Amino acid sequence: MRVNPELRLPTEVGALSRQMNIEWRKAATQINQLSEGQVVAVTNAATAAPTGSAVDYNLGDFILNSTPAELGTAGSKYIIHGWRCVAAGAPGTWVECRYLTGA
Question: Exposed, middle or buried, 62 (CB in 10 Å: 0-12/13-18/19+)?
Fold first, then answer.
């Protein structure tokens, strides 16, 4: 979920109260999921590094891997945690961020 910067709220008090309650629940849910480390709350999680030219990325941007799996061979297994942008652009230059699993 992304916060809509142009929230349109009703003017009638009862409807306003209901809509604010809905918006608060959505925001609180995402904040709680983020604080618990749930990938569902990350709006830019993906299955691969960006390849298209529709978005300009900045140096240091990070894309979380939404489908991590253990890869590699015995003694050197790892997961791809995500991708870090090391050169800005569209799509930029991305490197894998790997974590060894110890298996």
Answer: middle
